[in-house]
Amino acid sequence: TESLETGMSNLPCAIDGSCSGIQHYSMALRDQRGAESVNLTPSATPSDVYTDVADTLVEILKAEAEDGEEYAKAWLDSGWIGRKTVKQPVMTKAYGVTQQGVLEQVRSWADEKARTAQHPFDDLTKATQYLGDRVNVAIEKSVEAPVVAMQRLQDACKILNKRNIHAQFVAPTGFQVTQSYNKWKSMASQIKTIVNGNMAKVW
User: Fold this and answer.
1) d(Cα 55, Cα 203) in Å, to the nearest integer?
2) What gap in Å lies between CA 43 and CA 45, rounded to an integer?
3) How many CB atoms lie under 10 A from the CB of residue 136?
4) Other CB atoms closer than 10 Å to residue 98's CB: what's the count?
5) C-beta of residue 147 within 8 angstroms of C-beta of residue 96
6) What is the pLDDT of residues 128-169, one digit of tens each?
7) What are the Cα distances from residue 38, in Å, to 19, 20, 29, 127, 178?
8) What distance in Å separates the CA atoms of residue 28 and residue 181, rounded to the nearest whole number?
9) Contact 54, 83 (CB under 8 A)
10) pTM (two decimals)
């Protein structure tokens, strides 16, 4: 019989990506820093982009705390800041989450955390508003190239939209992709019909 190290197994193995949205951007841009943060390059130990962003966030808070920012001091003292603080914002950044969306995600995280842990804030909403802005900055600093590329694509699409032109590109395989988002006007009118023996109006 073959050993566990050399034997062939037909058991299915689930493999998860490391923030696949950032992986795609890093590959397309050939961005070395981004590729390293999402495990696209050889490494003795796996990288974790969420921890990288969380560490950057802590650095931002420490710098602002030294300048006397009370919210920064309070968040650092709370012991809440970590990987989970930034995970959802980082995951959704590559899919176009807005700054307001990040603020809502951070508020949702804080509300969930507040159910089981104490916080030092009189107004948690204002505190998370402050933190959410810094999370955005931390993401932009940690995965700079993908964020810049996303912004340029969004800017280009805005120009196309103003000219009523759909965004199009041809994939390396030759497959043409068209991003077509149309506004539909309803042409439906009210119809009277019988439903279960009763007269009903259907739009």
Assistant:
1) 55
2) 5
3) 21
4) 10
5) no
6) 999 999 999 999 999 999 999 999 999 999 999 899 899 998
7) 7, 8, 14, 30, 28
8) 24
9) yes
10) 0.79
How far apart CA 148 and CA 45 sit, in angstroms, is 28
CB contact set of 121 (below 8 Å; sequence gap of 6+): 74, 127
What's the sign of the alpha-carbon dihedral 97, 100, 52, 30?
A: positive
DSSP conformation class of 82: S
CB 88 within 8 A of CB 109: yes
Closest CA to 164 of 150, 151, 183: 183
- Residue that the structure tokens 């800041």 belong to: 81
Q: In the numeric block, which tokens belong to residue 23?
A: 């992986």
**Taking a C-beta distance cutoff of 8 angstroms, is the pair 142, 37 a contact?**
yes
Comparing CA positions, the residue from 86, 134, 138 lying closest to residue 110 is 86
The most distant pair of C-alpha atoms in the chain lies apart, rounded to whole Å, by 75
Residues 93-141: tens digit of each pLDDT: 999 899 999 999 999 999 999 999 888 899 999 999 999 999 999 999 9
Cα–Cα distance measured from residue 202 to residue 179, given in angstroms and rounded to the nearest whole number: 33
